[in-house]
Design a protein that fits this description.
With 144 residues, the protein is α/β, with parallel strands linked by helices. It has five helices and five strands; from the N terminus they run βαβαβαβαβα. The protein has helices at residues 15-27, 40-48, 73-82, 100-107, 122-137; strands at 7-11, 34-37, 60-64, 90-95, 113-116. The model has no long low-confidence stretch (mean pLDDT 86).
Length: 144
């Protein structure tokens, strides 16, 4: 099967969680490039190539935490979906929040999936494998 080069944008304010997520990808031998930013404002700058951030090349996938300072994940999603250049972005939520309200709010913004960080260990590795399979099988939106 053809390997697709997908850039990953991890929007995560907890350095320990960000490092653990990156290590999990490495353990699964997934070597896609990672860009890590701490909140929704930095993520938008990275996606748009603003304020000294190099624009993240397509195709990309966003792994988004919900609970962050400055601009949380739901606010980021709402802004992302209103931007014609970014509205087709593929976003997976990766969070500790198991609140139904957060799940509904993010699915209303057309996320690809809602994944709980609490599934550490073998379950979490299965989630990483699922993400790897997703971008290998699914056709991603073209650059416009």
């Amino acid at each position: 099967m053809e390997t697709k080069h997908i850039n990953l944008l991890l929007v995560e304010d907890d350095d320990v969680d960000a490092e653990a997520i990156q290590r999990a990808f490495i353990r699964q031998r997934i070597a896609n490039p990672f860009t890590v930013v701490a909140n929704g404002i930095e993520a938008l700058k990275c996606l748009r190539g603003e304020d000294g951030y190099e624009r993240l090349a397509r195709p990309f996938m966003i792994l988004l935490d919900i609970n962050m300072p400055k601009m949380n994940g739901i606010e980021f999603l709402q802004t992302l979906r209103k931007d014609p250049d970014l509205s087709s972005s593929i976003v997976f939520i990766l969070t500790t929040s198991n609140r139904d309200e957060d799940k509904m709010a993010t699915y209303r913004e057309h996320i690809a999936g809602y994944l709980l960080k609490s599934r550490a260990g073998a379950d979490f590795l299965q989630l990483i494998e699922m993400l790897d399979a997703y971008w290998r099988v699914v056709e991603l939106p073209p650059e416009h």
